[in-house]
Structure formats: structure tokens, C-alpha cells
């Protein structure tokens, strides 16, 4: 029935149609399961922005107020003066304008310390393997 080049083309088209139909049905099944789980879930549903429906977005609190704000302004002033004096001593054609300064929280892990510990461990392993007659 399906012989030759024409039969091969017809069979490939039929198999591709069947594959796309099965993939479409699987996609519909996944969407249906998501809707079913959202309907039966006790958690409130979220929209695309990640905000729970029926609730207002919480206002963003200010980071600094009062005394802290004046202290931050003084710190920004001191840092900008130091950078300006450094740039004035070097030849620079760019005007200086510091917009904001962000405090960096130190990392809990120091990568140099980790590297040093790993080197010490590999040295101990290599020394202990030499004592036992290793390479």
C-alpha cells in the first residue's frame, strides 16, 4: 500500500501528525491539572506578578530615617570628597558625580581562606601517601 518514496513521505506525515496530536493532548492535560490543583488548593492564587489576588501590595519601608539619614549624608559627603581629591591628583577629564553609595555586606565565607584550607588538606594527603609508600 505505502511503497516507494511517496509511501515513505505519506507515512512520515501521518506519524508527525500523530506525534503533534499526542503532544497537544499532553499540554492540555498539564494545563487542566494546573487549573484543578489551583482550584483544590487551600493557598490563595497568585497572578503573573506574584501578588496574591485580593491583597494590596505592601508599601516599601524607608531604610533610613532621622539621625541615620544625616549620618548617611555625611558618609556620602566624605566618600565623595575622598574620591574627588584622588581624581584631582590624577589627570582625569571626567566630571565627578556620586549619585548613591551602597553598603556591601561582607560574605560569611572568605574564598581565600577556603582555598588556603584546601591547599593545606591536599598537602597533608600527599605527605601521608608518601609515607605509606605511595607515589
Summarize the structure.
The protein has three helices and no strands. It has helices at 4-40, 67-89, 111-131.
Mean pLDDT: 76
| Outline type | elongated
Rg over CA atoms, rounded to whole Å, is 33 Å
Q: What is the succession of H and E elements?
A: HHH
Instruction: Report the oligomer.
Output: single chain
Number of strands: 0
Structural class: mainly alpha
Major beta-sheet overview? none
Strand content: under 5%
**Terminal-residue CA separation:** 70 Å
Helix amount: 55-70%
Separate helix tally: 3
Description:
By secondary structure, the chain is mostly helical. Among the domains are: 1-51; 66-97. Helices cover 60% and strands 0% of the residues. It has 3 helices and no strands. The longest helix is centred in the N-terminal third of the chain and has 37 residues, at 4-40. The chain is elongated. It starts with a helix and ends with a helix.
Furnish the topology, listing elements before pairings:
Blueprint: H1 4-40, H2 67-89, H3 111-131
Question: What tags apply to this protein structure?
Answer:
135 residues, mainly alpha, elongated
